[in-house]
Amino acid sequence: PITAARDEEGQLTLGGLGVAELARRQGTPAYVLDEADWRRRARTWLAAFGSYDPQEPPVHYAGKSFLSKAVARWAAEEGLGLDVCSGGELAVALAAAFPAHRITFHGNNKTVAELGRALDAGVGRFVLDSHEEIDRLAAAAIERETTAAVMVRVTVGVEAHTHEFIATAHEDQKFGFSLAGGEAAEAVRHVLKFRAGGKTPPLELVGLHSHIGSQIFDTAGFETAAHRAVGLLAAIRDEHGLVLPELDLGGGLGIAYTSEDDPQDAFSIVAALKAIVARECFGYSLPTPQITVEPGRAISGPPGVTLYEVGTVKPLEGLRTYVSVDGGMSDNIRTALYDAAYTCVLASRTSEAEPMLARVVGKHCEAGDIVVKDAWLPADVRPGDLLAVAATGAYCRSMSSNYNHALRPPVLAVLDGAERVLVRRETEDDLLALDLG
Ligand code: LLP
Q1: Measuring CA to CA, how many Å separate 369 from each of 231, 295, 311, 366, 407?
Q2: Cα(129)–Cα(141) distance, rounded to whole angstroms?
Q3: Ligand 1 atom at minimal distance to the Cα of residue 106
Q4: Treating both helix axes as pointing N-terminal to C-terminal, what angle do 69-78 and 35-47 enclose, rounded to 10 degrees?
Q5: 395 in ligand 1 pocket by Cβ < 6 Å?
Q6: Cα angle vertex 88, ends 52, 202, to 5°?
Q7: Does the Cβ of 254 fall within 6 Å of ligand 1?
Q8: Residue 212: CB within 6 Å of ligand 1?
Q9: Is the same domain home to 213 and 310?
Q10: What pLDDT digit, counting tens, does each position of 207-246 carry?
């Protein structure tokens, strides 16, 4: 839902800037990110934790939702940690001089080169996802005579109520070590074997990690995850005499894409997580670990809007009207991939015309190229109008492609009535530069 203000001419304003002006200067399609909103959300997540050590912030922004150098700087300035899951994301973070000790490195198949680079950079946490990786990271750390702080990623067996492709804690998927199957306890043994080595142990186990999925509204899944993970913390204490200080419960907090979505705020989620972890730990006479979370979408999604220009309007008698815009599945694959719902508005003007049920589609050579499946737009929507699609700040630019040799739109930050280009629009020269003939 777009609640942004309109000026006296009726055009939508973002960060104090009229969208028509913005489109005239920067072109369409364009991703527009409200910097103040992004920063406010980041601050709210941290505030929800109350007091904490600023060197070890309990909130790690999930860079996969959207990362650029400026956004990494925003995260650094607001005091967040950062979750990266590839060498590329790590490179952007380091290029922005993000404090490496506040970075957590994820991934189910990190390469030896990626692990080495992260160790050299001084990355704060490695989340281990396989036995091969435990050995690889230990070898890389031994080679460098350093110690990597690690967490073991646990599959807690929760069926998160979300799309199958973004649920991650049921048993039949690629991430983590199964808790129920005893694999997680085995992974812990594997990591702890390296304690017995030389003077500098290559791996230091600091905690457990669980991520149950994405776009989740119900805290019950997190509570089950916390319950099971704390059970493993207790088992580790009993078996190894080791009390792990950290428990990372991952990201996945849902946001409102349409008025039917009813997300919880950061304060109530964090309070619920703290309460359940404290209660479970009490039951095992365990000290409560530091809880960390990794929201991506909940920080970067709502502050983002995509601006498109309408090119054609095709009414199909008795069916619906197809409104084609100048982007599509290359800049937002989520509708096609997850059947995701979005909301859009006519942004360049207001209209008194009756609302009609329309489908906003892109310009790609594919019938599934849908941006907004069910869009209520005024019946007089016409070529040249600007449409704004809400809540596209997460997983749109970061999952964008050059399908049909589309040029990726720019990412613009708006703040106090001015825009700044964070990522510029691609050009045909950019595409041709990769094509060596
Ligand atoms: N932590 C871990 C370990 C993750 O795998 C993820 C997301 C997050 C945190 C952040 O989740 P968030 O708070 O943003 O939901 N492309 C999909 C989402 C995939 C998310 C993958 N991992 C989408 O567009 O919905």
Answers
A1: 45, 28, 15, 5, 16
A2: 17
A3: 3
A4: 40
A5: yes
A6: 60
A7: no
A8: no
A9: no
A10: 999 999 999 998 888 989 999 999 999 999 999 999 999 9
In-domain check, residue 3: no
CATH number of the domain enclosing 406 = 2.40.37.10
Q: E strand or H helix at 310, and its extent? A: strand 304-315
Give the chain's residues under pLDDT 70.
1-3, 160-169, 197-198
Per the annotation, does 294 bind a ligand?
yes
Q: Residue 260, annotated ligand binder?
A: no
* Interface pTM, i.e. ipTM: 0.99
Q: 252 CA distance to ligand 1 centroid (A)?
A: 6
On the CB side of 300, how many CA atoms lie within 13 Å of its CA? 30
What is the residue range of 41's domain? 35-299
Q: Would you say the CB of residue 106 lies under 6 angstroms from ligand 1?
A: yes
Q: Closest by alpha carbon to 236, among 179, 162, 303?
A: 179
Would you name the residues annotated as active-site residues? 365
Check whether 181 is labelled as a binding-site residue.
no
* Same-domain status, 108 and 246: yes
Does residue 437 sit within a domain?
no
Q: Which atom of ligand 1 is nearest to the CA of 340?
A: 25
**Atom 8 in ligand 1: which residue has the minimum CA distance?**
251
